[in-house]
Design a protein that fits this description.
Blueprint lengths: L21 H28 L21 H41 L5 H10 L5 H14 L6 H24 L4 H9 L4 H9 L4 H17 L2 H5 L8 H8 L8 H21 L3 H6 L6
Helix pairs in contact: 1-11, 2-5, 2-8, 2-10, 2-11, 3-5, 5-8, 8-11, 10-11
Length: 289
């Protein structure tokens, strides 16, 4: 008996191509134009930094340099390198301290309700809206009375105190999504305030810490007013040093531009490494009950 020929394999159904939507094309075109518009200052920054001083003029502002002058970066680093290290120490210490204090405040205000907690939280949030200029004179006097004026530690204290309201807000909203049953179960097992924070709350706080670290590191690194008024020449951060690079009547514009690029690298690296977690951490909660 002759074998029946095998049937031809049934072809997979072909999904029709979606028609091009003019509205979507227009939206992406506008986004590209907007991105190019915001990148124009970055182009000018690099173009000027890579020019030699004699090649910088109004007529050649938009011209890319014919010969790249990388010496601008080494010379700028020689002038602001120490200040970069001051800023790194300042930003890391102030960010970690304010993040930890904000985490403890958020934990206490969300899971250990006490009389007047909401009023205290509202007063703390009020601190977010006080401009630096309004508190500069009393802050200066307070730092001087503590004997911290002119040191990096006085600047750290100012940024930690000023960062507590926003870090408390972020962590309080984050911990509000943590089920109360977790805290109640730990309380039944005999855990107290610190044990619950260390064993239950802190291990699930990584998304909140990522958000706070990105925000606070950027704010501390870029701040100028406190840097100019609370420090001396040995403890001044990079933002103040950059303003000095552009001082005087005859300015070699390649140096402040190269210095600005160097000063922007730490915050840029923070966003590159942790940026994708920022929105996720900002919206994240714990295990949903």
């Amino acid at each position: 008996m002759t074998a029946t020929p095998a049937k031809a394999a049934t072809a997979a159904p072909i999904t029709p191509r979606r028609p091009v939507q003019p509205g979507r094309v227009l939206m992406y075109a506008l986004l590209v134009v907007a991105a190019l518009f915001f990148l124009v200052p970055v182009y000018l920054l690099f173009a000027t930094a890579l020019k030699s001083p004699d090649a910088i003029s109004l007529a050649t502002t938009w011209h890319w340099p014919a010969a790249l002058n990388w010496a601008s970066f080494s010379e700028a680093w020689g002038k602001i390198g120490g200040n970069m290290l001051n800023s790194l120490f300042l930003a890391v210490v102030a960010t970690l301290l304010s993040a930890l204090l904000g985490s403890l405040n958020g934990y206490a205000l969300s899971k250990w309700k006490f009389r007047g907690a909401n009023t205290l939280f509202a007063l703390m949030l009020f601190g977010m809206f006080i401009p630096y200029q309004a508190v500069l004179i009393p802050l200066f006097q307070f730092i001087k009375e503590l004997g911290l004026y002119g040191s990096i530690w006085g600047l750290i204290l100012a940024h930690v105190v000023y960062g507590i309201p926003i870090t408390t807000l972020i962590f309080r909203n984050f911990y509000a999504d943590v089920p109360d049953a977790l805290v109640e179960a730990a309380t039944i097992d005999g855990a107290g305030f610190w044990a619950i924070y260390r064993l239950v709350i802190f291990p699930i706080s990584i998304p909140g810490f990522v958000v706070v670290i990105i925000w606070q590191f950027t704010q501390v690194w870029n701040e100028f007013l406190f840097a100019a008024t609370l420090t001396n020449t040995t403890s001044q951060p990079v933002t103040y040093a950059l303003s000095q690079l552009a001082g005087g009547q005859a300015v070699s514009w390649n140096l402040p531009m190269a210095g600005a690029i160097l000063a922007a690298l730490p915050t840029l690296l923070v966003y590159i490494l942790l940026g994708r977690y920022f929105v996720r951490g900002l919206l994240a909660g714990s295990v949903k009950g």
